[in-house]
Specification:
The structure is a single chain. The chain has 103 residues and is mainly alpha-helical. The chain is globular and about 45 Å long. It has helices spanning 3-13, 18-31, 34-47, 53-64, 68-85, 88-102.
């Protein structure tokens, strides 16, 4: 069974598992299916805004698809959430990517 099938099997058991959805989104990115990945990241962040790891990947996906304005918004929101959660490492990664994009 491939990874996507296995992850979907896990999601059938627990559809609101952010970890599994995040992993599945990353698999879709590897396959070049940015639309499916984007939808998954958006579902995660709508349901669980404190799941800070998804902001970076969603913003990078948006950058890659020339949606710079939206990528900037996602980086900013991610930095706010990471700061609120005390996730300094994630905050630093988001800030670095944000600065690369905006300066």
């Amino acid at each position: 069974m491939d990874r996507i099938e296995k992850l979907n099997e896990f999601l059938n058991s627990n559809p609101a598992d952010s970890f599994v959805q995040h992993a599945l989104a990353l698999e879709y990115i590897k396959l070049g299916d940015d639309e499916k990945a984007r939808k998954l990241f958006e579902v995660i962040l709508q349901r669980e805004p404190g799941y800070v790891g998804s902001y970076y990947h969603l913003a990078k996906l948006l950058e890659r698809n020339d949606n710079v304005v939206e990528a900037i918004r996602i980086y900013e929101k991610g930095m706010e959430e990471a700061k609120r959660a005390g996730e300094n490492h994630v905050y630093g990664e988001l800030k670095s990517a944000y600065e690369e994009l905006t300066f």
